[in-house]
Amino acid sequence: MHPTDVVVRVMVWPVATVPGEASLLEVAESLAADGVGALGVVESGQLVGVVSERDVVHHLAQGANPDHVTAADVMATDLVTAHPDDRILDTARRMVEAQVRHLPVIDDGDVAGFVSMRDLFEVLVDVAAHEEDVVVVPSGTRVVVRQE
Question: pTM for the full model?
């Protein structure tokens, strides 16, 4: 796989979801049971937010009662999304810029899947491992190292 491949090749489906009224404890249990880092929050069949492990930990550390705080209370609602045909590298850049680790993939208004930084990182690292003679300096410039 290559960074110019499309997101549909690495996204996860089916998407693990919870209703907005799910307690923080139920969210934590779903994250653990599904082995994922984020869940889609759905209401009336529509994605309305994303709740991540980081959201759960943050609220518990601030003393939230896990039985009374809900997914709707802690979810991110200003969603950054991808389309199944978006390039992997472009999607990774979007995630870095938005400082998110999980991204819903939306197709015609419906959730087509989820992609995580881990999914994208595996592709990017694999390519970097095969380009041993290319170095990326802090400015982002790619320098080709010639060995003679």
Answer: 0.79
Dist CA 67 CA 5 (whole Å): 42
Measure the CA–CA gap between 22 and 44, rounded to whole angstroms.
14
pLDDT 10s digits, 30-89? 999 999 999 999 999 899 999 999 999 999 999 999 999 999 999 999 999 999 999 999
- SS3 at position 147: coil
Is beta strand 38-43 parallel, antiparallel or unpaired with respect to 17-19?
Answer: parallel
Q: State the first-to-last Cα distance of the chain, in angstroms, to the nearest integer.
A: 30
8 Å CB contact between 106 and 65? no
Going along the chain from its start, the domains and CATH numbers come out as 7-144 (3.10.580.10)
Among candidate residues 50, 124, 125, the one with its CA nearest the CA of residue 80: 50
Helix (H, G, I), strand (E, B) or coil at 119: helix
Locate tokens 């990182």: which residue? Answer: 121
